[in-house]
């Protein structure tokens, strides 16, 4: 069960919530297909408020494709995958060309 914590600036919260609403609403079928194509059986995200007003997004991915999901997504030329990774990049203000951090290791 790979997991990752990704910072989210306070001023990006509303946009992130609108994006996740799209993924569970009008884009739900596309999101389900993305997960299926990449071997994910479960894909969850949690919004964790921090004392300084910013947030962490805790992402949990489960399934046979979970360990290689980020690399597979980044290498994909599928339109929805590109939209998804572009949204993640913009919302979390990450560099799409930078080396991706490894998923967290379960310790307990």
Strand content: 15-25%
Oligomeric status: single chain
Structural domain tally: 1
Strand count, sense and barrel status of the largest sheet are: 3 strands, antiparallel
Query: Strand order within the widest sheet?
Result: 1-3-2
- List low-pLDDT spans: none
Order of helices and strands: EHHEEHH
**Count of DSSP E strands?**
3
The helix fraction, in percent, is 25-40%
Task: Report how far the terminal alpha carbons are from each other.
Answer: 12 Å
SS class? alpha+beta
Number of helices: 4
Average pLDDT score: 92
Radius of gyration: 14 Å
Tell me, briefly, the overall form: globular
Folded structure, characterized:
With 108 residues, the chain is α+β, with helices and mostly antiparallel strands. A three-stranded antiparallel β-sheet has the order 1-3-2, with no helix packed on it. A hairpin with a 5-residue loop joins strand 2 and strand 3. The longest helix is centred in the last third of the chain and has 14 residues. The mean pLDDT is 92.
């Amino acid at each position: 069960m790979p997991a990752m914590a990704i910072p989210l600036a306070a001023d990006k919260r509303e946009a992130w919530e609108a994006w996740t609403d799209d993924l569970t609403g009008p884009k739900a079928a596309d999101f389900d297909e993305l997960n299926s194509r990449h071997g994910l059986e479960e894909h969850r995200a949690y919004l964790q408020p921090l004392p300084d007003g910013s947030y962490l997004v805790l992402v949990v991915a489960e399934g046979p494709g979970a360990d290689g999901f980020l690399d597979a997504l980044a290498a994909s030329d599928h339109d929805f995958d590109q939209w998804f990774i572009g949204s993640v990049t913009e919302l979390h203000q990450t560099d799409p060309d930078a080396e991706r951090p490894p998923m967290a290791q379960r310790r307990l």
